[in-house]
Amino acid sequence: MGQHLRRSTIWTACFLLLPVAYAAAAANHGEVPTRPSEFLLIAQIALLIAVGRGLGEIMQRIGQPSVIGELLGGLLLGPSVFGWLWPAAQHAIFPPSPEQKALIEGLAQFGILLLLLLTGMETDLKLVRKVGRPAFFISVAGIVVPFACGFALGQALPDSLLPHPEARLVASLFLGTALSISSVKIVAVVVREMNFMRRNLGQIIVATAVLDDTIGWIIIAVIFSLASSGHLDIMSLTKAVGGTLIFLAVSLTIGRRLVFKLIRWTNDNLVSSAAVITVIILLMSAMAMTTHLIGVHTVLGAFVAGMLVGESPILTSQIDERLRGLISSLFMPVFFGLAGFSADLTVLKDPTLLMLTGALILIASVGKFGGAFVGGAMGGLSGRESLALASGMNARGSTEVIIATIGLSMGVLSQNMFTMIVTMAVITTMAMPPMLRAALANVPLGKEEKARLEREEAEAKGFVSNLERMLLAVDESVNATFAATIAGLVAGTRGLPITVLHVGAQAKSQEKKKGEEESAENTVRNAAKAIAELDEENAGGDVDVTTRSRRARPKDAVADEARKGFDLLVVGMDKVVGTKGGYDKRIDEVTRGFEGPIALVAARGKHLEQPASTVFRILVPVSGSSVSHRGAEVAIALARTSLVPMQVVYVATTRDTTPRHSASMSLMNEEAILKDIGVLASRYDVGVHTIMHANMSPDAAILREIRNTRADLVVMGVDRIKGDTLNFGGVAASVIEQSEVSVLLVSSGEVG
């Protein structure tokens, strides 16, 4: 292993020496490129990536954000170090000719948009709404105080630090915004690393950083409009502010639905590689150009595009990782490397500039720290919580560098001022992680907060809480309506999108009736609303329902839909049990095209007359297996609309191979399993009655408790057994054949 690492290091070093050797040769011969060079462009990108990512790895290992390493990489390759030690070689690799600089800067400018896209995707608007009052007060105070400090500093700066002293107002506004904004990405990384992301204080810190970022980009967009006109023009200011507000209003209302529909349509209909990522990048470009046309900066369009993409219910982790990988491995080291490259630290040998840089860091830190601390007190936080909050808000990180780069390109900042701001960003960002870690370590955990964290920890490992998209396959039967009710209740807990696939004999006509009161689509929506009313804070409620009708055999129709990415198939068809036992051949045909978890619904008893009823008396058999726990999760989700306690019966299974040395140990094991289900149910205010039938066959115990408890729905977690026909095991077959009440079988995804 060590030898392999040394060999890789040697090859990497040899690779990096190629452009240096080229530079040395060019420097010795006095060669200056007369036109843009592709070789130099590749060499520049390779050096920025290799040095930036390498230093970023080192920074992460010592507890610092990787972006610091990428900035330091640019400083090393720029005039601050490389240009100071070997000017001729540095100019040979990074020639100052406008044509050559335009190539790499074009890549970096597009990288800014992608970075803002990623920042927007990480912006959790639901978290901001949930935290509410504290985040608002903290954000306002945390922006107003440092903004005032930065504006005052801009008014006091000597003319030599301003590229256009006559436009001091715009420069002061820009400097005030630069000092008031925080880096949500850096803040979120440290909070997540400390396992504080779901803590109350952690959510307030991240939500405040999100508000800071959002407000900051809006202000930057407006200032860009002012800088373009060169003076404070009421008409241009009105146009910029009005255009920004209209853009935000349309994007966050109509645009949200359109973006979701566009991503879903792309995912469902295009078969080319990474089609969704392509559409996301095109969407970002379109929104960036839109903001440019209304007179504000393109970064606002990219940021808002990221927020809309991040709220898409079917943005899978795979898509997110692919896009994040592209941005992190290419665009981030190039952009931040160039930002560090543009900062010439040698100018700080001037005592005046060094003192001004120290003053800038002090004003930025005191203003942000003081404003956030006061805002925390106004928002009702304790002294320790306000201290931790203020420590986190002081990190400028990547956001500050992006703003400084925009200011430099706009002509608002001079080169020296740009260097001072980048220095401030590096120092405040490096100081934040140890300060925040120390402050968070002293924040106690409250009783209510502890209960919420335990619930969320259980949800993170659960089945229902990790569903992203559901497929509902139905015909024209009463059982189809009951299955739509079940699917709507499960989807409504988190606002999951559902595709209703009509696979019956009248599939096309059923698709046309999707808007009617008795349709499966309307049943799904009504059930989702019923459960949303119980928990408005966490439930999605308003689910998006798509309708499809089969154009081929049911098996092929389900298989075609399954390729689009679904976590659960809910099946509701007229006949469930076959004439000769087992499952009906049409059920077998439909489920054969789906490899993931299946929920098979069989309406009996009162649900044949009231299939849309959302009130159940549920019986859940459990055995301690993971699949029976999955069934219990689904049962709890359904039971939340009922006031009747859920009945949980422990049954022994033939697959239970746990050795039992005594009756007392067996009893303890069974009680622990029932207690676990009870704790899970209590987190959602669902009552539970527990029963044990360890000395009776599972199917006999279940059928007996159906009668004893007067249950009207049995929810069972079952294994899907490999074979030529659909098989969930003998116990499930016996119950679904003999039960006089409705049955819901929830299978595992694996076929064993």
Element layout with pairings:
Elements: H1 2-29, H2 38-61, H3 66-77, H4 82-85, H5 87-93, H6 98-121, H7 125-131, H8 133-156, H9 168-180, H10 184-193, H11 200-229, H12 234-269, H13 275-293, H14 298-310, H15 317-342, H16 351-378, H17 383-393, H18 397-410, H19 415-440, H20 447-461, E1 470-474, H21 478-492, E2 498-502, H22 507-512, H23 520-532, E3 545-549, H24 554-562, E4 568-572, H25 585-592, E5 598-602, E6 618-622, H26 626-639, E7 646-651, H27 663-682, E8 688-693, H28 698-709, E9 713-720, H29 730-738, E10 742-751
Parallel strand pairs: 1-2, 1-4, 2-3, 4-5, 6-7, 6-9, 7-8, 9-10
Antiparallel strand pairs: 5-10
Mean pLDDT: 79
Helix content: 55-70%
Number of helices: 29
Ranges with pLDDT <50 over ≥5 residues? 4-15, 654-665
Query: How many independent structural domains?
Result: 3
Structural class: alpha/beta
Looking at the chains present, what oligomeric state does this protein adopt?
single chain
> Beta fraction of the residues?
5-15%
Overview in brief:
The protein is built from 29 helices and ten strands. It is α/β, with parallel strands linked by helices and 752 residues long.
